[in-house]
Amino acid sequence: MISYKILIRRVHLYLGLLLILFFVKYGVSGFIFSHGIVFNEYYKDKPQWIERFEKPYDLEIPENPNMREIGRRILDDHGFKGSYGAWWNGNQRIAVNTFSFWRTTRFLYYIEDKRIAAEDKIFRWDHFLTKFHWIGGYQQEGLLHDGWAFMIDLVCFSMVIWVLSGIYMWWQNKSTRLWGSVALSSGLLTFIIILIAM
């Protein structure tokens, strides 16, 4: 019969091993978010989009449109599949972005002019890595997107489990309680100060 102490240690260990690449990519992409100005400066003189086409297009927009349905219709009309987001600025333009880790294509539909333009985004490594934070979700179509969303849920759940099991294991080791208390208190204090000050 396995003891609960051993069970906690093994859950802590094997969740970390199972999700090791997810934790690494969140660390790397979080660093890129924090230093985005450096990457934007590097790419500022480089083209950001390449035109795919521009042509007449007539799509009736209802008074209170469902943007997921509008986006899907635009993509279906132009032979595109995969995950996407659709936005309407409330005026005369609807934007639909299709995205994967490797490619982003956007469609800009100009309601009044009855025309549509499509552009491919130039590949950037920083954007590739930061997509890990927001790509997918259960609202997207397909089993792979559901699988990816489930793995993100598991990562979020595991972070909480990792913290709680780590605190438990630290407290069980009496020789580390003093410096562990200093580290824990310092982290909590720093978080609270920044939270209030910002």
Question: Helix proportion of residues, in percent?
Answer: 40-55%
Taken as a percent bin, the fraction of beta residues is: 15-25%
Strand order of the largest sheet: 1-5-4-3-2
How many domains, as an integer? 2
Estimated radius of gyration: 23 Å
**SS field, number of helical segments:** 7
Low-pLDDT ranges: none
Shape call = elongated
Number of strands: 5
Largest sheet: 5 strands, antiparallel
What structural category characterises the helix and strand content?
Answer: alpha+beta
Helices and strands, in N-to-C order?
A: HHHEHEEEEHHH
Distance between the termini: 50 Å
Mean pLDDT, to the nearest integer, reads 88
Question: What's the arrangement of secondary structure elements?
Answer:
Elements: H1 4-18, H2 20-34, H3 36-43, E1 49-56, H4 67-77, E2 84-88, E3 93-99, E4 104-110, E5 115-121, H5 125-130, H6 143-172, H7 177-197
Antiparallel strand pairs: 1-5, 2-3, 3-4, 4-5
Helix pairs in contact: 1-6
Notable features of this structure?
7 helices; alpha+beta; 5-stranded antiparallel beta sheet; 2 domains; 198 residues
